[in-house]
Design a protein that fits this description.
The longest helix is centred in the middle third of the chain and has 17 residues, at 52-68. It contains 7 helices and 5 strands, in the order βααβααβααβαβ. A 5-stranded parallel beta sheet has the order 3-2-1-4-5. Helix 3 runs antiparallel to helix 4 (52-68). The chain has 141 residues and is α/β, with parallel strands linked by helices. 55% of the residues lie in helices and 13% in strands.
């Protein structure tokens, strides 16, 4: 199964709290992706930096990450999965963040495992395979 890396892990990686290589080594047979949503979130964080040096450093980090992993876009299949997921979560009264819902829908539509540190939100999504790379003991399917 292929993997989608969530923004939470990329932020932890940037802060030196996570070593991505240790999680993908030995899994070379699995493709690893980012979502366009995560790309936007990372770029947004870089552009929000008020210090020019910090902004430059963050933008360099983001561009390096974007060059390393293919970015998956939102299409009609993902939109259909998102609509169903959104409806289901709203019906159960268990909404998650808007961006997280799109990321979860992308994983469901493309049959991807989500690598994240945000299991609190994503665990509400039925059928979503999750790996918590910051706390591996909390993985679920």
């Amino acid at each position: 199964m292929a993997i989608l890396i969530d923004t939470s892990l990329l932020i932890a990686y940037e802060r030196g709290q996570l070593e991505l290589t240790s999680h993908v080594t030995g899994r070379e047979h699995e493709e690893v992706f980012l979502s366009a949503i995560s790309a936007s979130e990372l770029l947004h964080g870089a552009h929000r930096a008020t210090d020019a040096a910090v902004r430059t450093r963050r933008l360099a980090f983001v561009e390096a990450v974007l060059a390393r992993f293919p970015v998956l876009e939102i299409d009609l299949e993902v939109a259909r999965a998102h609509a169903a997921l959104w409806s289901d979560l709203a019906h159960k009264g268990e909404m998650i963040g808007a961006h997280d819902a799109w990321i979860a829908a992308l994983c469901i539509a493309r049959n991807l495992t989500l690598a994240t540190a945000n299991t609190r939100e994503f665990s509400r999504v039925a059928g979503l395979a999750i790996e918590n790379w910051l706390n591996p003991g909390t993985n679920s399917s």
